[in-house]
Design goal:
There is one protein chain. By secondary structure, the protein is α+β, with helices and mostly antiparallel strands. It folds into two domains: 168 residues, Creatine Amidinohydrolase, Chain A, domain 1 (3-Layer(aba) Sandwich), CATH 3.40.350; 260 residues, Creatine Amidinohydrolase. The protein has 15 helices and 23 strands. The strands form eight sheets. The protein has a six-stranded mixed sheet with strand order 10-9-8-5-11-12, with helices on both faces. Strands 13-16-17 form a three-stranded antiparallel sheet. Strands 14-15-18 form a three-stranded antiparallel sheet. α10 packs across α11.
């Protein structure tokens, strides 16, 4: 807890607001007897001028429209404008003069006809800008050994469209709210010719892009692309996201604590409905309500809410079976809080009480979980931690008699996945980087051992059949003098704690 306390106070700022009594009295009492702005009622004066200055809305929260959420210098919660600028600087630092990068975020995908899916910004675009609209282009051009220019092309503000779909940022607000050098409307008469010329003049006729296609824009740019070659820069974009800043770690902690508290509340909900015909989708809906009630915008991914043998399917997301008294519920879920994700798995008894056999498997998985978290240190890798997880799990399987001379199956049937993955703005973050990469301070990974036994596996002692357990935590790689920081500390995982919560004792 000491590490978590330090983490929460990394960037603590105490704001002291002053109160100018003289100016207050002066401004309140200025009026004249002939003023039409004041009326009297029982000796009290009231202003009849009800004109309010409407704050400018740009289609996403700003300090002006959402002062309860954002500080003056923040583009998104917890991340100031200067940090976004530093991210762009860091990306461009090692490239030659004239080098250009274009990142695209196309129109939102449609669910059916004219009904769109909820929009989620492209991760790399979000990381470099904080801009949260579709149909935009970020172009970065290296202009000197130490500097670059940033250009953001956005949708034009059109009153008729904004009446239906809400406010847009517009090119005129790009510099003020996002710290971008130049803003343009992405129209045929304005931004598209400028974007085309900038791409056309890129170094050696090469433009480096993210891997997000946008066919409609490509067609409009075609006259400028005759001598231009496109290359992907996805790996460079992801590399900058591997190591999190202090601000990002704090946002990850917020996301994990919201999800952790929601796991606790969901356990209590299931325990409180013991004996009733509860369905997996009801549990899923309750968890989603819990995280959104605490400020999360959405779930990190479709949750796994797997009762009984459904837990044997690693990414079971149908969530449509009735829970059965005496079985386990394996739940893999997380939330996205201001673009930062959590990814937690907990397994708990539907009736609130572990059987002896369930306890045997659970304690084995928990042991692997704790011992692998201890290995989350600089110089290790997900691959090296996984090797230890295999060794520990295999020993437990043999100790419990699950694998033996009479069972032709080895550990891979019961523990078929990796011990973890990178975590950040995406659930499976920075996918271009393999698990052999040496861990460094500021990286965040998951630790998620499991044992999954089908109820139809005749090679396993009968008491263990149908038991599937995974325990997953999110862990910050610390500096060399500190222990690993478990961000998911509020998600209960000790047997005694889970049983107490589900029996409503705590």
């Amino acid at each position: 807890m000491n590490n978590l306390y330090k983490l929460k106070n990394l960037n603590k700022i105490i704001n002291i607001s002053s109160f100018n009594k003289t100016n207050y009295i002066k401004n309140v009492m200025i009026f004249s007897s002939s003023s039409s702005l004041l009326s009297t009622n029982n000796g009290r004066f009231y202003s009849s001028d009800k004109t309010l200055k409407k704050p400018l809305s740009i289609g996403q929260p700003t300090h002006e429209t959402h002062p309860h959420l954002l500080k003056k210098n923040e583009i998104t919660k917890g991340i100031p404008m200067e940090e976004f600028k530093e991210r762009r600087d860091r990306l461009m630092r090692n490239f030659p003069i004239g080098f250009a990068i274009a990142l695209f975020t196309p129109p939102e995908p449609m669910m059916s006809y004219d009904i769109p899916w909820e929009f989620r910004q492209n991760t790399n675009f979000n990381y470099l800008t904080g801009f949260n609209e579709p149909e935009a282009v970020l172009l970065l051009v290296k202009t000197s050994e130490i500097d670059h220019q940033s250009h953001l092309f956005v949708r034009e503000r059109i009153a008729a469209k904004e009446k239906w779909d809400g406010p847009r940022c517009g090119s005129e607000n790009v510099q003020k709210y996002f710290g971008i050098d130049f803003g343009y409307n992405l129209t045929l008469k304005d931004g598209i010719p400028i974007l085309g010329k900038l791409i056309e003049n890129s170094l050696d006729g090469k433009i480096y892009c993210n891997t997000t296609p946008w066919d409609g824009l490509s067609d409009k740019l075609q006259p400028y692309l005759k001598n231009v070659n496109f290359y992907t820069i996805e790996t460079f974009l992801q590399k900058n996201r591997l190591i999190k800043s202090k601000n990002e770690i704090l946002m990850m902690l917020n996301s994990c604590e919201i999800a952790g508290k929601s796991f606790s509340e969901t356990m209590k909900y299931v325990g409180g409905n013991s004996g009733k015909p509860l369905n997996e989708y009801q549990v899923s809906a309750y968890f989603e309500w819990c995280v959104k009630d605490k400020g999360a915008k959405r779930l990190s991914y479709p949750p796994v809410v797997a009762g009984g043998d459904n837990g044997h399917t690693l990414h079971y997301i149908q969530n449509n079976q009735t829970l059965v008294d005496g079985e386990l519920l394996l739940m893999d879920a997380g939330c996205e809080y201001w673009s930062y994700t959590s990814d937690i798995t907990r397994t708990f008894p539907i009736n609130g009480k572990f059987t002896e056999a369930q306890r045997d498997i659970y304690e084995a998985v928990l042991d692997v979980n704790k011992r692998c978290i201890e290995l989350c240190k600089e110089g290790e890798s997900i691959e090296s931690i996984h090797s230890k997880a295999i060794e520990l799990t295999d020993n437990h399987l043999k100790r419990l008699g699950i694998t033996n001379a009479n069972n032709p199956n080895d550990y891979t049937l019961y523990f078929p996945h990796s011990i973890g993955h990178y975590l950040g703005m995406d659930t499976h973050d920075t996918l271009d980087f393999g698990y052999s990469v040496k861990l460094e301070p500021g990286m965040i990974i998951t630790i998620e051992p499991g044992i999954y036994i089908s109820k139809y596996d005749q090679n396993v002692p009968e008491k263990y059949r149908g038991i599937s357990i995974r325990i997953e935590d999110n862990v910050v790689i610390p500096d060399s003098n500190s222990p690993p920081i478990v961000l998911t500390h509020l998600a209960p995982k000790e047997i005694s704690q889970i049983e107490s919560i589900m029996s409503n004792k705590i």
